[in-house]
Amino acid sequence: MIINQMKQTFFIFLLALLSFSVFAQSPAPKKEFYEIREYELRFGSPASNLENYFKNALIPTLNRLGVKNVGVFKEIGKSEPAKIYVFIPYTSIEQYATIKNQLNSDEKFKELSQDYNSLLPDKAPYARYTTSLLLAFDGLPQMIKPGTEQRFFELRTYESFSEDAARRKRKMFNEDEIKIFYNTKLYPVFFGEVVAGEHQPCLTYMLTFKNMEERDANWKAFSADADWKRVSALPEYANTVSRIIRVFLEPTTYSQI
């Protein structure tokens, strides 16, 4: 009996050791690359011209070319002029470059975009759009698609006064803060270092909730969390954020997030 128990214990230990060895040798997940477009709509021009382009041309083509989970969002508490946000996740910066070239030459995409491209200047749906390019964090190398019950989103950008301050804030997220987010039910969709775009140096991330009430309650829990208070008091992370920009969003009916 004792010998059998010893054999069983040794077998369990061996399995655990092998499992740890395989896990330790597994390569880290490749970090994704994100594009965020912010469209400023023209006053008096129907947004449907732009939304039909997203729904019937851009998103189906991106899906066909291998890009999944394209998000399209509108602001809650509408700004003037109104804005539409488009989130496009790529598996890598190489895929971003490849897709960009493919869109320029794809005949099916040109066919689907014909109505949009035929709009005259007085019917143009937007005044301008800006693009930000982001590299996913080490602590969350791939986006997490939220459940269907989570339809309230918060997009947050943290500006820093210097490149080193931005680096330290990313480190803070990667090593400590993302864990605290999960512990206090601040569920992320993505975290990204902005490598090109406005508000540099900065980072941008998105959280998802059921509604504003849940959002407020979970942020309150985060602020009161003992681990957050400990980490935020560390001298290494002092003066890492100089300004926070936040936008509350709701997905369109055709958004894939």
Main sheet characteristics: 8 strands, antiparallel, barrel
- Spans of at least 5 consecutive residues whose pLDDT stays below 50 are 1-24
Which class best fits the helix and strand makeup?
A: alpha+beta
Strand content: 25-35%
Helix content: 40-55%
Which value, in Å, is the CA radius of gyration? 22 Å
> What's the count of strands?
8
CATH architecture: 2-Layer Sandwich
Topology:
Elements: H1 2-25, E1 33-41, H2 48-64, E2 71-75, E3 83-90, H3 93-105, H4 107-112, H5 114-117, E4 126-136, E5 152-159, H6 163-183, E6 187-196, E7 202-209, H7 212-224, H8 226-232, E8 243-251
Antiparallel strand pairs: 1-3, 1-4, 2-3, 2-8, 4-6, 5-7, 5-8, 6-7
What can you tell me about this protein's structure?
The protein is an alpha+beta fold and 257 residues long. It has a single domain (33-251), classed as Alpha-Beta Plaits, CATH 3.30.70.100. Helices cover 41% and strands 26% of the residues. It has 8 helices and 8 strands, in the order H-E-H-E-E-H-H-H-E-E-H-E-E-H-H-E. Strands 1-3-2-8-5-7-6-4 form an 8-stranded antiparallel beta barrel. The radius of gyration is 22 Å and the shape is globular. Residues 1-24 have low confidence and may be disordered.
Structure summarized in a few sentences:
The protein is an alpha+beta fold and 257 residues long.
Name the descriptors.
41% helix, 257 residues, 8-stranded antiparallel beta barrel, Alpha-Beta Plaits, alpha+beta
